[in-house]
Amino acid sequence: MRVIDNEAEVPLTINILPMIDVIFAILAFFIISTLFLTRAEGFSVDLPEAETSQSQQEAFITVTIERNGNISIDKEPVDLSELTQVVEQQIGDSSEALVTVQADETIDYGQVIAVMDKLRMVEGASLGMATQQPAQTGTSK
Q1: What is the CATH number of the domain that holds 91?
Q2: Is residue 65, in this structure, part of any structural domain at all?
Q3: Is 41 contained in some domain?
C-alpha cells in the first residue's frame, strides 16, 4: 500500500545571492591589490609634463633624481661617481635593460645630463625619461 502525502513537494532551489556576494568581495580584493602592486617605485618627485608622453613597459631599473639633487636607484641612495657600476651590477648578464630616469622638474638640467651621460656608458642599457600627461582642464575652445 502506498502512502499518500497531501503536502506538495517543495521544489529544491539553490540560493545564489550569497555566492554572488562572495564573488564580488573576491573581485574587489583582486582589483585593490592589483592597484597597490602596479604603483611606480621610487621617491616622490614632480615629473615634468609632456603632451606626447606614452606609456612604456615597466622599468627594469629606476634612477630617481630628487628635488635636493640626491640620486637613487630603486630607492637606494647612490653617488654619481658609482652610478655606472651599480647599474652594471643590476643589469648583470642581461643583454638589454630599460633604465628609466625620474627627475624632478625643478632639478638642474646639467645634473640630469650628467646622470644620463653616466647611464649611456652602461652597455645594454636603454634610457627613458619619466614624464606625466598634463592635467586635463575642463575648458574647451
Answers
A1: 3.30.420.270
A2: yes
A3: no
Tens-place pLDDT, residues 25-50: 999 999 888 877 765 554 555 666 66
Q: How many domains does the chain have?
A: 1
Look at residue 141 in the predicted model and tell me its pLDDT. 44
Query: In this structure, are strands 71-73 and 61-65 parallel, antiparallel, or unpaired?
Result: antiparallel
Domain, as residue range, for 96: 61-129
Measured between alpha carbons, how far is 26 from 22 in angstroms, rounded to an integer?
6
Backbone angles phi, psi at 30, to 5 degrees: -65, -35
Which pTM value belongs to this model? 0.53
Nearest to 116 by CA among 75, 89, 83: 83
Q: What strands lie across the sheet with 71-73, from one edge to the other?
A: 76-78, 71-73, 61-65, 97-103, 125-129
Parallel/antiparallel/unpaired status of strands 125-129 and 97-103: parallel
- C-alpha grid cell for residue 12? 529544491
